[in-house]
């Protein structure tokens, strides 16, 4: 149990540090030593740093304290990859939630947030649902499916029915059917994670018209469904959930629908459709495969050549796999975002020209024909507005190029337009 105690103490120390930092900054704001804007920005930078430290902290718990080895030999956990994954994710997820909790406590101390336990739990739940739940829960579902198969194989492998199924190929068919059902049910799973509502009639007709003109069906079963994403006015974004065509779901946030002009809504939706059309999600999934090869190959090589013992070899292999994942996924993600921006401009022209009307402006130029250059200008404006409340999202990150880079690429497309707005990318729409 010393392994568990060491891991718990390590994580608890960072949880305490995050909350002490939030409390200290809140006290400085209340005493008038620091302004709210400066304090919130400084706290945000601190929490971002702690979130990045969650990765090496988790690695230290797993390999330095041997938490991963301890999980593998527990009577209940040793037969379940799903339960082991929960244990492996626990240190990192706990630190992530702790940073959100610290930010909430900061706002509660200075009087911006309600101090009630109910609001606190609702806020943490909403952040989990809009954050790691998108990746963690589907992954755990696949692992639990594997656990179920292992149970069936362990208890029924010697039965004539199992032998018949294995010899006739039915077993692999059932596995493929299970994986297919999970992929198809993903959009409904997302509906459960994200709080969704039906679109208003005007927005529904608008979105469906654009999708139809781009050759995308909105059939109730086989097409792409559209839903309003209730984020409590926090997010100005859209996303497409679903890997396969039946049951794909386009989520459009409440704030995007309520605040962004029609031309901006068009470009944000076209950007998400571009990710689907250009197969960016499967491409990002394939980018993770080299990391598995690097991790397993390096672990085997270090063990076979007796350079390190098995435990340290697995640790080094895990670190090399993590580095490979970060590099490969970062490169592919940057490429896919820039490619989606360019593709969105072409899709926007198609969505408008096929209908013969412009969705750009709401004034006297509403019937003017949209061009590729104008679409690029609209997307640059939409990106500027979408990231206005989140300065960190404008900066270069692991998975996203900076706003300046994206706007500069779009300006190359819109360069033929007379440009008197070199410093601002805002149209009167």
Q: Topology of this protein?
A:
Blueprint: H1 2-30, H2 36-64, H3 67-72, H4 81-109, H5 117-130, H6 133-156, H7 160-167, H8 170-193, E1 196-197, H9 201-213, E2 225-229, E3 238-241, E4 249-253, H10 254-259, H11 262-277, H12 280-287, H13 289-304, H14 310-353, H15 372-386, H16 403-413
Parallel strand pairs: 2-4
Antiparallel strand pairs: 1-2, 3-4
Helix pairs in contact: 1-2, 1-4, 2-4, 2-14, 4-5, 4-6, 6-8, 9-14, 11-14, 11-15, 12-14, 13-14, 14-15, 14-16, 15-16
Question: Which key terms come to mind for this protein?
Answer:
disordered C terminus; mainly alpha; 429 residues; 4-stranded mixed β-sheet
- The number of helices is 16
Order of helices and strands: HHHHHHHHEHEEEHHHHHHH
Helix content: 55-70%
Q: Compute the number of strand runs.
A: 4
- Poorly predicted segments: 356-368, 419-429
Average pLDDT taken over every residue: 80
Using the alpha-carbon principal axes, give the shape. Answer: globular
- Bin the strand percentage: under 5%
End-to-end distance: 62 Å
| Class per helix and strand makeup | mainly alpha
Strand order of the largest sheet: 1-2-4-3
- Radius of gyration in whole Å, from Cα? 25 Å
Major sheet description: 4 strands, mixed
Structure description:
The chain has helices at 2-30, 36-64, 67-72, 81-109, 117-130, 133-156, 160-167, 170-193, 201-213, 254-259, 262-277, 280-287, 289-304, 310-353, 372-386, 403-413; strands at 196-197, 225-229, 238-241, 249-253. It is mainly α. The protein has a 4-stranded mixed sheet with strand order 1-2-4-3. Helix 1 (2-30) runs parallel beside helix 4. The radius of gyration is 25 Å and the shape is globular.
């Amino acid at each position: 149990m010393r392994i568990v105690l060491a891991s718990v103490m390590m994580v608890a120390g960072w949880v305490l540090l995050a909350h002490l930092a939030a409390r200290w900054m809140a006290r400085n704001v209340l005493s008038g030593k620091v302004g709210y804007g400066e304090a919130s920005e400084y706290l945000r930078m601190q929490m971002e740093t702690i979130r990045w430290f969650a990765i090496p902290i988790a690695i230290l718990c797993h390999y330095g304290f041997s938490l991963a080895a301890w999980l593998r030999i527990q009577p209940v956990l040793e037969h379940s990859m799903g339960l082991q994954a929960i244990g492996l994710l626990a240190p990192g997820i706990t630190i992530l939630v702790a940073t959100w909790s610290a930010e909430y406590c900061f706002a509660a101390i200075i009087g911006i947030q309600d101090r009630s336990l109910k609001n606190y739990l609702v806020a943490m739940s909403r952040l989990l649902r809009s954050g790691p739940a998108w990746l963690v829960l589907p992954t755990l579902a696949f692992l639990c499916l594997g656990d179920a198969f292992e149970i069936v194989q362990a208890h029924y492998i010697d039965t004539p029915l199992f032998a018949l199924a294995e010899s006739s190929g039915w077993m692999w068919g059932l596995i493929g059917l299970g994986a297919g059902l999970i992929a198809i049910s993903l959009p409904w799973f997302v509906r459960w994670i994200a709080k969704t509502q039906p679109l208003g009639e005007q927005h529904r007709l608008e979105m469906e018209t654009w999708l139809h003109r781009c050759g995308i069906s909105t059939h109730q079963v086989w097409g792409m469904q559209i839903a309003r994403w209730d984020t409590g006015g926090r997010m100005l974004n859209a996303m497409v959930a679903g890997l396969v065509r039946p049951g794909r779901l386009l989520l459009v946030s409440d704030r995007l629908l309520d605040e962004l002009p029609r031309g901006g809504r068009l470009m944000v939706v076209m950007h998400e459709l571009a990710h689907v059309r250009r197969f960016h999600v499967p491409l990002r999934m394939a980018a993770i495969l080299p990391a598995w090869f690097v991790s397993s190959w390096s672990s085997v090589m270090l063990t076979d050549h007796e350079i390190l013992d098995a435990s340290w070899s697995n640790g080094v292999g895990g670190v090399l796999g993590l580095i490979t994942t970060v590099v490969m996924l970062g490169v592919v993600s940057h490429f896919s975002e820039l490619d989606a921006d360019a593709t969105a401009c072409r899709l926007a022209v198609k969505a408008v020209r096929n209908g013969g009307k412009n969705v750009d402006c709401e004034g006297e130029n509403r019937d003017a024909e949209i061009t590729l250059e104008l679409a690029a200008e609209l997307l640059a404006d939409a990106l500027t507005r979408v990231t206005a409340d989140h300065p960190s999202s404008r900066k270069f990150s692991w998975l996203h190029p900076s706003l300046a880079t994206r706007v500069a690429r779009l300006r190359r497309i819109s360069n033929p337009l007379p440009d008197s707005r070199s410093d601002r990318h805002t149209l009167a729409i």
